[in-house]
Amino acid sequence: MDADAVRERAADLPTEPGVYQFRAGETTLYVGKAVDLRDRVRSYADPRSGRIRGMVARADRIEFAVTDTETQALLLEANLIKRLQPRFNVRLKDDKSYPLIALTDHPVPRIEVTRDPEEGAVAYGPFTDKGRVETVVKAIRDEYRLRGCSDHKYANRDRPCLDYEMGICSAPCTGEIDPESYAEDVAAVHRFLEGETGVLADPLRRRMETAAEGAEFERAANLRDRLEAVEAFHGEGGEAVSDRSDDRTVDVLAAAVEGDVARVARLHSERGQLVDRSRHRLDAAAVGEGDEETDATPGDAPANPDANTPAAVLSAFLTQYYAEREFPDAVLLAERPSDPDVVDWLEGEGVAVRVPGAGREAKLVELALKNARKRGGRDDPAGALGDRLGIDRPARIEGFDVSHAQGTAVVGSDVCFVDGSAETADYRRKKLTDRNDDYANMRELIRWRAERAVEGRDDRPDPDLLLIDGGEGQLGAARDALAETGWDVPVVALAKAEELVVTPTGTRRWDDDAPELHLLQRVRDEAHRFAVSYHQTVRDEVRTVLDDVPGVGPETRRRLLRRFGSVESVRDASVDDLTDVDGVGEAIAETLRERL
After folding, report:
1. pLDDT at site 387
2. Distance between CA 399 and CA 510 in Å, rounded?
3. Cα–Cα distance between 261 and 385 in angstroms, integer?
4. Whole-angstrom Cα distance, residue 142 to residue 98?
5. Contacts of 187 (CB under 8 A, 6+ apart)
6. Residue 376 carries which DSSP code?
7. Sheet holding 61-66, edge to edge
8. How many CB atoms lie within 10 A of CB 196?
9. Is the pLDDT confidence value at 397 over 90?
10. Distance (Å, rounded) from C-alpha 583 to C-alpha 560?
11. Dist CA 260 CA 87 (whole Å)
12. DSSP state for residue 577 in the 8-state scheme
């Protein structure tokens, strides 16, 4: 649309509160709110930003909806942004939550690091540094030997597992420790996690000193590193985190902006205890002219601040986040939102909104700022990958591979990485049609994933990028599946032989030391490992003529196939070679030779 078209359209709009959309075909480019729709839309005839000028030029029409109040316009704008994800708005995309340490609700509790504790579990955290959490849990298990196995593995055991032999589990499953002694160890772990650092640090220090006196310097160094992690464990917020005298529910929010990507860190406190931390990603592509409605007077801040500022990001986050969640008693902010309507709305709902300057609340805000700034810049491989591919930062990547043996036991893998780390809870695998056609197999695998996403049958968030293990053929098959299902997700492939990145627009060779290439390689290699592992399981489950040989059970059949690779190779093996396999004596070997 040109300036005249915008003015002509604005003249037809009412002078009432409402929401407007700039659209191009079926795509919404931008959603905005206004106290006066006519005045607001007219301002786009002379945009002061090059990006907004480009947005207006791309639009072919402007749609609007009238509301009764300014608050209704604010909430409708937030809902439309959440649903339509317009490119030129600040858009909220939830990140993964932070890890917790949980002790399960079981007569013999197990300890685990998790983001989704079981019902009834006692959870501690969340924590910002997963590596430190895992180090501390290892130290806990090494000292107090709490079990880490699932309840299924715990039940009906007749002998201790490898964890017992390694000294990190006291094997309550087989009665190697009595229930009372195990309960005492669990109580000690609770005391440590509740803040009594010496419960774990003191024995660690003694073991470190003993190792040093015995000239076991490598062991002493490992214990020193573990001790440092333990002593720093309760330092993520210190006295700011806990205040039993405070019975409110409080959210603490801070934003950090890096280019066109922003992150908001949220700390949630109940009855003076920090009980939840989360981090949320927003895409801040552009904001329209007059986007922040204000009754500015001379000397006030500008009415139209840049969208890529923490204040503007907080404005967008607050409306989109709380439009579908329960309000806390108070919201503490690192800085005041750029849109005063947002503050008026929250206060109208009974929420106290403050920007604290000192004391415990200010320390909480500082902690939130630290979390918001946790990732970014040149050390961000996902950001570099997005720049290379010309897409939004792919925080969530799913990798796919197919594995089979000459067209039999065909399976596919779907692994997931979030911010460069494997998200194993979101791994999936699928048996595919038996056929010796890699392209058809990949097409079937991607179609399966895409159909589940489009039909709402997959409980995982949509990925930001799909990575295919293969070359142009596999990528073409994946793109065919995406086109057939209408699932719009960027997709690239990584070919093994020369580590070439294959995109829809061509094949590229990246520097061997490029962090973005290393990220793709990690995802690709994990997809390959997961596919091969599942293929081996399926292959071993397939009934063969070996099952008809007397004396050959499932375990012996698996050993034979692992040793020789196929039934044909077993048939051609000598008796001496066959008897090298555990469980195969001369009689069974002779029978195998006769029957096969």
Report:
1. 75
2. 19
3. 14
4. 24
5. none
6. -
7. 27-34, 18-24, 61-66
8. 13
9. yes
10. 10
11. 11
12. H
Alpha-carbon distance 353 to 332, whole Å? 6
Provide the token pair at 127. Answer: 């924590």
CB-neighbour burial class of residue 557 (10 A; exposed 0-12, middle 13-18, buried 19+) = buried
Sign of CA dihedral 267, 270, 272, 273: negative
Q: Is the pTM of this model over 0.90?
A: no
Over residues 49-72, mean pLDDT: 85
The pLDDT of residue 301 is 33
Distances from the Cα of 574 to the Cαs of 102, 154, 562, 586, in angstroms? Answer: 54, 42, 16, 11
pLDDT digits (tens, 9 = 90+) for 509-546: 888 878 889 999 999 999 999 999 888 888 766 556 67
Q: Which tokens go with 528?
A: 């390959």
Q: Please give the single-letter amino acid code of residue 168.
A: I
Q: Alpha-carbon distance 258 to 506, whole Å?
A: 29
* Residue among 399, 415, 474, 465 nearest 444 (CA): 474
Q: C-alpha distances in angstroms, 398 versus 337, 422, 437, 532? A: 35, 10, 22, 17
Q: What's the rounded Cα separation, in Å, for the pair 101 and 133? A: 8
Token pair recorded at residue 419: 């911010």
DSSP 236-296: SSGGGTB-TT--SEEEEEEEEEETTEEEEEEEEEETTEEEEEEEEEEEE----TT-S----
According to DSSP, the residues that pair with 354 across neighbouring strands are: 332
pLDDT digits (tens, 9 = 90+) for 201-254: 888 888 888 888 888 888 888 888 788 777 777 654 333 344 445 678 899 999
298-344 per-position pLDDT tens digit: 333 333 345 568 888 899 899 888 876 789 999 999 899 988 999 99
In the chain, the percentage of residues whose pLDDT exceeds 70 is 87
Q: In this structure, what DSSP letter does residue 407 have?
A: T
